[in-house]
Design brief:
The complex is a heterodimer of chains A (292) and B (244). Chain A is mainly α. Chain A contains 11 helices and 2 strands. Chain A has a single domain, classed as ABC transporter involved in vitamin B12 uptake, BtuC (Orthogonal Bundle). Chain A is 74% helix and 2% strand. In chain B, the strands form 2 sheets. Chain B has a 6-stranded mixed beta sheet, with helices on both faces. A 4-stranded antiparallel beta sheet of chain B has the order 2-1-4-5, covered by helices on one side. The relative contact order of chain B is 0.18. The chains are: A mainly alpha (292), B alpha/beta (244).
């Protein structure tokens, strides 16, 4: 087996996997506070990329464009929660899930009207001269993607385990009623979870855009892959979901490299189905058994 | 301190509480006793804002609670220790307690919260030993202490306790009830206590109300209720001599 090729597949798998992981993280954060699967999560990823392209077109430096794109998408996430989720709070989960599907179609439609159907590229953060490593060529952007993803994960980890707000959000996921009773504003936590999910997803979309290009409709596939990553890693476990994303990216890339790239997307969904059938709690999922 | 007047609460079409009135004075321990499904938990949940009343008024220290959101009720100084304890099981004992002070957490106030944590640990030394352990691994009695400790972290003036003795061995239950008494005697807390175990509840309470199918059918000083023949027959499990 050719080591350079293997390394090449690993690197490209990890890079794409990082975005799946960030998308998956968004799914789990919202799922934890609300019990919902937010099918508009993929659109947050798309918006991150598209906003970044637009800001860069205005002549802003790429780094600033990415930051602004993430913030703009965060606002979209907040608006979505306020306008479409909060007014129907208390409705059955299935209604809310269907609302998120509706919102995703709306966002995609608006994006098509605003940006058209073209595919856009974002300049790479620090040039496009590949770095050679053991015979594999690595885009500097891949390093950016991995480094930014890891720092985002570290930041969230700190937020959830060391800040009162982070612990409060976790508390909502463990016992919503008790969260109310200790004085946590659950509504505010739900809003915050949509904002964080949008921020994380958009960042994933924006940092990947220089490598894969972006268009108004990339959200569907990225969203579904993020969802698959979340099932793989265990729904409800944010860091498991992020790891699931990386694993999924690598499997997909190895499959495309060694078997056939025509089936690249099929691998993801085969893995998704296998996990749903065989191990629905995922690799790192909490088991549902508990002491009574 | 807490005044409930002509309260009507519905669950969908079920009339769970019917024109219930009760009051709790400052520094009192008041017990609300009654069988399963009598509406005890419903009354507590309405007071703490989890359920909205259909009719009637609820005031706490002059504040109208009828439309107050649960997280605001905590801020007013009224903490609810729910039925089944509802601690955050996967989180550590320390984090559970800290979350009790959620609304008091501000930047730079950590020292104050640490002081309160130490006070709770002093009250329940078993929790101090297990502060880093996941709350779900505690025994039933310890979980109840944790639930009470978590409520105390909000620095309440009044506690609503829902079935603190549920599922506990008799000696552990007595220990919990001694603690409740001590909270009133030493920390000047006012307590509204809901219990199916009427005997234990009336032993530490000053006054009591008896609830049956959503109505308050009896009220009075605790000793009087303990002596009452209907209460004895229905809730204290005592057969009357000479009349069966």
């Amino acid at each position: 087996m050719n080591l350079a090729a293997l390394l090449q597949y690993l690197v490209s798998g990890l890079t794409v996997g990082a975005t799946y992981g960030l998308t998956a993280l968004g799914f789990t954060i919202i799922f934890n506070t609300t019990g919902l699967i937010n099918f508009a999560q993929g659109e947050f990823v798309m918006l991150g990329g598209m906003f970044a392209v637009s800001f860069a077109h205005l002549g802003l430096p790429v780094g600033l464009a990415v930051v602004l794109a993430a913030l703009a998408t965060t606002v979209v996430g907040a608006v979505m929660e306020r306008l479409t989720i909060r007014p129907v709070a208390g409705a059955p989960a299935i209604n809310l899930v269907i609302i998120t599907i509706g919102v995703s179609i709306l966002i995609r439609g608006l994006a098509m009207l605003a940006w058209g159907k073209d595919t856009f590229a974002l300049p790479a953060f620090s040039g496009e001269v590949p770095l050679l490593f053991l015979g594999a060529a690595m885009q500097p952007q891949s390093l950016w993607v991995l480094a930014l993803t890891l720092s985002l994960l570290a930041g969230l980890r700190f937020f959830f385990s060391h800040t009162m707000y982070g612990k409060g959000m976790l508390a909502c996921s463990f016992d919503r009623r008790a969260a109310y009773l200790v004085g946590i504003s659950v509504e505010r936590m739900v809003l915050l979870s949509f904002m964080i999910a949008a921020l994380v997803g958009a960042t994933g979309g924006a940092i990947l855009a220089p490598l894969t290009m972006t268009a108004y409709d990339v959200g569907i596939l990225l969203g579904l892959k993020g969802f698959a990553a979340c099932i793989l890693g265990g729904l409800g476990n944010p860091f498991g979901a992020a790891a699931g994303g990386l694993i999924l990216g690598v499997l997909e890339s190895l499959g495309a490299g060694y078997l056939s790239s025509a089936y690249k997307n099929a691998f993801t969904f085969i893995i998704l189905l296998l996990f749903l059938f065989v191990r629905p709690t995922g690799l790192f999922g909490r088991s549902s058994g508990e002491r009574v | 301190m807490l005044v409930v007047t002509n309260l009507d609460v519905f669950y969908g079409r079920i009339h769970a509480v019917r024109r219930a009135s009760l009051h709790v004075g400052k520094g009192e321990i008041v017990a609300l006793i009654g069988g399963n499904g009598a509406g005890k938990t419903t009354i507590l949940s309405t007071v703490s804002g989890l359920i909205r009343p259909r009719e009637g008024s609820l005031t706490f220290d002059g504040h109208d609670l009828g439309r107050t959101r649960p997280e605001k009720v905590v801020r007013l100084g009224l903490s609810h220790v729910p039925e089944g304890r509802r601690i955050f099981k996967p989180m550590s004992v320390g984090d559970n307690l800290l979350l009790g002070a959620f609304h008091r957490a501000k930047f730079g106030r950590r020292a104050l919260l640490d002081q309160d944590l130490d006070a709770v640990y002093a009250l329940f030394p078993k929790l101090a030993e297990r502060r880093a352990q996941a709350a779900g691994t505690l025994s039933g009695g310890e979980q109840q202490m944790l639930a009470i400790g978590r409520a105390l972290m909000a620095r309440p003036r009044m506690l609503l306790l829902d079935e603190p003795g549920m599922g506990l061995a008799p000696n552990i239950m007595s220990e919990i009830f001694r603690h409740i008494r001590a909270l009133r005697d030493e920390m000047a807390l006012t307590v509204l206590l809901v219990e199916q175990n009427a005997k234990q509840a009336l032993r530490i309470a000053d006054r009591g109300y008896v609830l049956e199918t959503g109505r308050i059918i009896l009220q009075g000083p605790a000793e009087e209720l303990t002596e009452n023949r209907d209460v004895q027959r229905a809730y204290l499990g005592r057969e009357q001599d000479g009349q069966a």
